[in-house]
């Protein structure tokens, strides 16, 4: 079905901890893992699935660790990856950081968790909040009489325990939209989309029933109401707690929330996004002497809004030296280990336009190595604003004790992390001329 | 204080010290000691010698300590099986503990101790735990059954645990249901024959209910199990799909892919023009796209699967090409997969964008990626004809960059473009030739040589160019040598020299290097050309310069039956490797291969458009292997007389599929079918010389003047003469035996052949063979006895007196109950009733009556087999769409499908 055994290795391929779930793959097979990976790395063709004989390794990398699952069956590969990432999530919640040291420092708990997370290759309970109710780090506290299986583990509501109490009942809703954008060398937008997430911080007593209302176009179409602006969500993904059949039938987002922080849903919107910060750049390269870079950034959002922590990352040749910068606002610095010039603007009001000039020296002997053409990337955050116009219209909270609870909503639009605004402007090349169409 | 302290120990006497600590009186000390033992185990030290001391610590009320001891047991019990027994009592006791956590822990651990002796003791506790009041214990016990089955399958069955597991499917707790399903699925993987899961509509309903309530992982187990179910009709398929689609909105990517698998399988059962079918297709696209915003490994699995889905149902993602555009920071494995899918989705509508992207990629630094991007441009040119010109100019631009591997890759794809669009882009040859010197890869050299040879008449200095390659002929790879040889011959044929003598010298000097090659292929090809040219240059020209078939645009599509199988494995390793599971999982050869469900009712609802379903794969298949298809068409045309042309041929094949729609894989059926028919037309080599010490036997079966014959050719390929021939048949379905001894009376000299016609009759012993028409033969000569088998075409069993009396026919026809009636449809047969009747009569299938009802011709046919079985049939002919009905009497053995199909096929021609 899935994994025969799960290993945590350090970067040298040494096993830090492992758990043999099925016993049908020799545990010594893991010794082949790192040599295989190194061969692939040398060829420049790594792959998340590798095989040696009839043993298959499915692996992910997290900080300075490899998490590897082995199998010799036709396993469900997507389940294995989902599980490995879940393991990372659980360990991170337990130990704050998942790294070599935290594994060693907590090996007893790690073993206990591995025992509880998966049985005979079948993932079991992987909700860290529930696990924390019966597997604690304070091992000595655990006396038999106190330790019972939380009924939550096997309940249909397997993500929230009963008997939670708060003095003040509140729920905080963050709507975060990230922009993916790709702009071609000629300034045309090749592709763009919005990935939104709704995150909750739930501080509610008991077993509350929540209903979230968004200005979802499909919902409005169903109910026949038409009030103002609506948003078409291309695809929606929900936390385990949301009743999917209900959403499928009448687009109602109803759920019993997990306690504390959680990601309730994510959505994808395909509409054409106007680049919120537009970049233009002129790069002139004088071989053997210097390269001159001029970058113009323009805020294409409402004047009332302000973008924070704007970072324009401009790639420069790897053999550049003696950087000189001039900016109309913010400040720029050279990050040689990443071959980047980074221009930071703490606060960028909408409608404004700023300039940065940079010049670098180039050695007289040219570097023969071929260099890629990394794009210019822009990271930023704009609070109190969603680019799609999505809105939380209501959050209904019903609990049988009948308390009043307050929902708080916050909006933010950003770019960075896995999403990015990319401008393919940086066209300097060594051997190859630019191809103009 | 962290646990890391346990890892720091003084080396010497460590084990000894630990032993002492494990036996310490204080509880706390013992616990500390066990932790140290586990720490030592974790870093790979062998602490198995402490086994008895650790087991002594098992009796504790400290849960943490208990878990550690259990962990130790799991690791070392196998190496200390005798001592492991010591632990049994504690296990049994723990299974009775009031704390469900401990009961579950005990049953979970016991299953992991793979020691036979222990498993015996496990049965009773397990039985109790399966009925435990706490669901946490039950769900753990369910998995334990699978563990036990892995150790001792027989015992699990004898003890009735499989039934207990099946009962758990109806458990009130969703997690118990999910684990029971997972355990049963796992067990049934090693037991393909037993229908363990017992998937009936009731159970399916239970599973679908549990689907809404169990954890994300449980949902995956259930969905994977559902995908193995074959709904009985389209209504059931639709209702399952409706309850599965909400899972597409789950945040867990594995839940989404498993749901996609179920839906992709059940789509097969839905009528294509129904609204629901199209709604479902639309619903599949967004979740597949969203998978691409996941972690890179998840993206990779998704992309490999999308690659399959795009081939199976291109309509799902045809609008989404942009999401497959490569990002600068994508890992290389994601980049390469995206490129593949981009090409598959490229169409006239999006080709401009695709080309712009590919051009961008072709100037990146990653060599493998750049190469693939260049290849992709070439494939776009071949796929989208309208874009060919732009592709070619893009490739020329890339060649101008002079980046070595880009140039070489470009030349290889330009060759393919030339093959697809001959005589269109030769103007660029000059540019290509400029780069001749920089080509150092065999592929690129061979491509360039091919181009020069193919267009020799338009390249002024073609001879010089080829000569420059000839200089280092012996150092070239075989691929280049072979291409070069052909190119030289082409050049000669296109630009013949003036005099005979010159010709001779030219070819000889240029072809001769191949004569002393070690490579037999190369040498043989050299000699073939040489002889061809020196004996008959005109024929040589016809052979070498003949028009070649154009290359197909989709040469790299996955073969349709494999594709269907892989669709059944969406999300699994098989779908990532694009290989069937038995290609990489040991010991899975006996396991039945999964296949897509086949639409029911395609047999008797022939007239409804539904039957287009199973025929579709055939159309695809033909586009994949056009040359073979054409070849078969041609072969059949050869002997089948005038009215059959190639397109008709393919429609006949579709008819054939409809016949067998009940379960046989369509493509294979068609091939087998044609093969069977060819059998009766062409002599087969029954016994190859290598298998029979030089004796080769080929032959056919025929029926002439009411007599069956086996027409054979015996050839002696050995060096000695052969005498004393004799022949004998094994028992067979029709009791066929030779009427006379083998009529070979003179010795057969080396390299001599003799043709014999052996009369047959059907009075021999009968034994049912598989296939029905299989015949096993033994032939003896002075050297040895040899065995072979052949298939007898069924039409030789149709006897001449198969014309039934009209009255008898009518009476028999009425007596046939409806349920024995089988109906098939043959599509687009353009023969009229009389022609059909005449053709059938040639094969002893007689027309008893002919009626005309509402403009349709009805033919009533009869035939009789040598064993006295009568077969009756009704043939209804509408213009362009005849319905053919076969009925047969209930009191006789029903002819198997092969016989029927054969009958039909004959009637067709």
TrEMBL record, chain A:
Keywords: Cytoplasmic vesicle, Golgi apparatus, Membrane, Phosphoprotein, Protein transport, Transport. The keyword Disulfide bond does not apply. It is a peripheral membrane protein. It is found in: Cytoplasmic vesicle, Clathrin-coated vesicle membrane; Golgi apparatus. Its main location: membrane. One of its GO terms (biological process) is vesicle-mediated transport. GO terms for cellular component: clathrin adaptor complex; clathrin-coated vesicle membrane; trans-Golgi network. The keyword Phosphoprotein applies. Gene3D superfamilies: 3.30.450.60, Mu homology domain, subdomain B (2.60.40.1170). InterPro entries: Adaptor_comp_med_subunit, AP2_Mu_C_sf, AP_mu_sigma_su, Clathrin_mu, Clathrin_mu_CS, Longin-like_dom_sf, MHD. SUPFAM superfamilies: Second domain of Mu2 adaptin subunit (ap50) of ap2 adaptor, SNARE-like. Belongs to the adaptor complexes medium subunit family. Subunit of clathrin-associated adaptor protein complex 1 that plays a role in protein sorting in the trans-Golgi network (TGN) and endosomes. The AP complexes mediate the recruitment of clathrin to membranes and the recognition of sorting signals within the cytosolic tails of transmembrane cargo molecules. This is AP-1 complex subunit mu-2.
From TrEMBL, chain B:
This is AP complex subunit beta. InterPro entries: AP_beta, AP_complex_bsu_1_2_4, ARM-like, ARM-type_fold, Armadillo, B-adaptin_app_sub_C, Clathrin/coatomer_adapt-like_N, Clathrin_a/b/g-adaptin_app_Ig. It comes from Oncorhynchus mykiss. It comes from the Eukaryota. PANTHER family: ADAPTOR COMPLEX SUBUNIT BETA FAMILY MEMBER. The keyword Protein transport applies. The keyword Transcription regulation does not apply. Residues 683-789 form the Clathrin adaptor alpha/beta/gamma-adaptin appendage Ig-like subdomain domain. It is a peripheral membrane protein.
